[in-house]
Specification:
Putative Flp pilus-assembly TadG-like N-terminal domain-containing protein; 8 strands; Tad_N; 185 residues; two-stranded antiparallel sheet; membrane
Length: 185
């Protein structure tokens, strides 16, 4: 009976699968970075949308119903009253919240839409009229009330090995968010 010498076969297996293991580890690392960047961007965008929605005057949005001494009822419909600039507030809060991520997130840009229920006020302020739908790359936000919609895009750099494997320098990520002002009782 002839017995083959199989010493060193584990080394060959290791040498064959080491590049595959390295590729998987690098891609896992970059995927984790992209996911972390997307979560951070989504949280920053949501915070920016809430801050921008606070620029809308909630008292004016509520409208009013007044009954005089004779029992006559006067109804004032809700109006959009901008107490500041929702667009610049959105961008400012977004910039402050994404600035701390250093090289993880770069090239952050945003599109912001203010939505108004009242057609006359929408025309006066140059805002979208509710209900409105904004879509981007499969994301869809429908705003039925007065509020703010924000679309945020950013870039995440890849590691050098992932650049070689994927043939790309960076990954582009985008998130869309919406917020309405809080109504006071």
């Amino acid at each position: 009976m002839i017995r083959k010498d199989d010493r060193g076969s584990a080394t060959l297996w290791f040498v064959y699968f080491l590049p595959v293991l390295l590729v998987v580890l690098v891609l896992a690392f970059d995927l984790a970075r992209a996911y972390a960047a997307r979560v951070a961007l989504k949280q920053s965008a949501a915070l920016a949308a809430r801050a921008a929605a606070m620029e809308l005057d909630a008292d004016a949005l509520a409208g009013s119903v007044v009954t005089d001494a004779n029992g006559n009822v006067t109804v004032t419909p809700p109006k959009l009253a901008l107490t500041g600039n929702a667009d610049s507030t959105f961008r400012d809060v977004l910039t402050r919240n994404t600035g701390g991520y250093g090289s993880l997130i770069r090239n952050v840009s945003a599109d912001v839409w203010t939505v108004n229920e009242d057609p006359a006020m929408a025309k006066k302020y140059g805002t979208a009229q509710a209900p409105t739908v904004q879509t981007w790359n499969g994301y869809r936000v429908e705003m039925k009330k007065t509020g703010v919609i924000g679309l945020v895009r950013a870039t995440v750099d890849l590691s050098p090995l992932a650049r070689m494997i994927l043939g790309k320098q960076a990954l582009d990520i985008s998130v869309i968010t919406a917020a309405a002002p809080e109504m006071r009782p």
